[in-house]
Amino acid sequence: MRRSAPTLALCLAVAGIAGTTGLTACTAPDTEPPPAPAGLTAQAGSATSVHVMWDAAADRDGVTGYQVFEADRLVRELPAEKTMVDITGLAPQTGYAFTVRAKDAAGNLSGPGPAARVTTPAARAEDRTAPTSPATTTARATGPRSARVSWTAATDDTGVTAYDVYQGGVRIHTAGPGESATALNNLRPDTVYTFTVRARDGADNSSPDGPAVDVTTPPAAGDGPGTAPAEFAATVSPGAVTLTWTAPDTGDLTSEYELYVNGLPTTVIQFGAGAVPSGRAEHRLTVTEPAGTVWAVKLRARLPDGNWGSFSAERQITLIA
Predict the structure, then answer these.
(1) pTM surpassing 0.70?
(2) Which of 26, 56, 54 is closest to 42 using CA atoms?
(3) Which residues, 6 or more positions from 112, have their beta carbon under 8 angstroms from its beta carbon?
(4) Percent of the chain with pLDDT over 70
(5) Higher-confidence position of 264 and 126
(6) Is the Cα torsion angle 67, 68, 71, 74 positive or negative in sign?
(7) Residue 3 has pLDDT above 70, yes or no
(8) pLDDT tens column, 137-156
């Protein structure tokens, strides 16, 4: 078991009785490095960029950050919560070898572990045509903190070089051009995720999102029932948006929900006494924004303990006049 002692030895002299010889207790400095990060992969995202990923360190390893190297050159330094990075400014048609080292609070560095090797594709500076979107997307939870996402191949006039997986509009993973599925880790238990996949070519042109797919991770051992509103839907009509969902089982009726629009908290939906839904809920919003405005909407419930629960799936809608 690793220790998280200070970098300097701490010695405490304990005086004996009546001035007799004292005892000295010393805590040795932490000089044991953490283990090398596992699961290192490197995938060319374009002719000049590579996406590097690795598995998060276990809590017991005391890791406080990571250093990413290309050959023997330090290219990025990241905090412990980051386990992926895009390395840009690379040369086309060039081979690279990336390694990652873990660092602990005492400054000890792990070994580099096996290198992840990758070759960037040829540059196509005049290519301005984006690939087609993957036609279908499927996904399933494989555990409380993991999921598997699959997609069908896209096409491009110069060739697809990568597939990017997005969650809530944020790219969280990059897969190779020959891949049609990937495992996603470091998810949260009892959470609804909405995944989409985009294809990318060697000139960094990205396709539109493929079809969105929802995945709900199961609760971890000891967790209570799910807290995310289920089967969330948003229906657009002239000057209005109607939201419907199934109330989560929180042990009590849920009378308050927080609505997010485009990633920002917008309003709190409250149901009065006698109108609190116990199953399917509905709320109608009057909108004044111009037709064509795009919203990404999601919501979460106020739990009986006063905290907010997990978010529902996110829905993208376009307002109409």
Answers:
(1) no
(2) 54
(3) 36, 69, 99, 100, 101
(4) 90
(5) 264
(6) negative
(7) no
(8) 999 999 998 899 999 999 99
Q: Buried (b) or exposed (e) across 270-299, using 16+ Cβ within 10 A? A: ebeeeeebeeebebebebeeeeeeebbbbb
CB atoms within 10 A of CB 140: 11
Banded model confidence at residue 283, pLDDT cuts 50, 70, 90: very high
What are the tens digits of pLDDT across the range 187-203?
888 888 999 999 998 88
pLDDT at 215: 93
Instruction: Using DSSP, state whether 132 is helix, strand or coil.
Output: coil
Q: DSSP assignment of 48-75, as one string? A: TEEEEE-PPPPGGG-EEEEEEEETTEEE
Strands (E), 28-180: 41-46, 49-53, 63-70, 73-79, 84-87, 95-104, 116-119, 137-143, 146-151, 160-167, 170-175
**Cα distance between residue 229 and residue 169, in whole Å:** 20
Contact 203, 185 (CB under 8 A): no
Distance between CA atoms of 27 and 162, rounded to whole angstroms?
A: 51
8 Å CB contact between 300 and 217: no
CA dihedral 103, 104, 105, 107 (to 10 degrees): -50
The first and second tokens of residue 129, run together, are 């045509």
Q: For residue 213, what is the enclosing H or E element?
A: strand 213-216
Average pLDDT, the chain: 86
Residue reference for tokens 């199953």: 279
Residue 173 near residue 165 (C-beta atoms within 8 A): yes
CB 194 within 8 A of CB 211: no
* pLDDT score, position 222: 72
Q: Name the residue among 252, 245, 256, 303 with its Cα closest to residue 279.
A: 245
